[in-house]
Design brief:
mainly beta
Length: 100
């Protein structure tokens, strides 16, 4: 997901005899900040979607779903995910509100 980056640092070292040599170090840095992408672009009740991203260094994917007649709609806000429970006007099926 592109949540890490590599940085290369070149430093000069002085060794015995006053000769200077360079050393190269490559470090992989994990971005622990949150990220979030919503496949259905927000709270969209008539289309099933998913949110995915990175939270605390771990990748996640969560799908919109129907539970006990309610649509649990996931969305992104400030690079984190949230959810909203929505009572569909007719029926909830496959993670979206549908007409009967």
């Amino acid at each position: 997901m592109g949540c890490s980056k590599q940085e290369t640092q070149i430093t000069g070292l002085t060794v015995a005899g006053g000769q200077q040599v360079s050393a190269q170090t490559t470090v992989t840095i994990q971005d622990l900040r949150g990220s979030c992408v919503d496949s259905d672009d927000g709270i969209t009740v008539d289309r099933a979607g998913k949110v995915s991203g990175v939270l605390d260094g771990e990748e996640y994917t969560i799908y919109d779903e129907c539970i006990a007649g309610l649509l649990v709609e996931y969305y992104c806000e400030d690079n984190n995910y949230g959810n909203q429970n929505i009572r569909c006007p007719e029926e909830c099926s496959g993670g979206a509100c549908t007409a009967i």
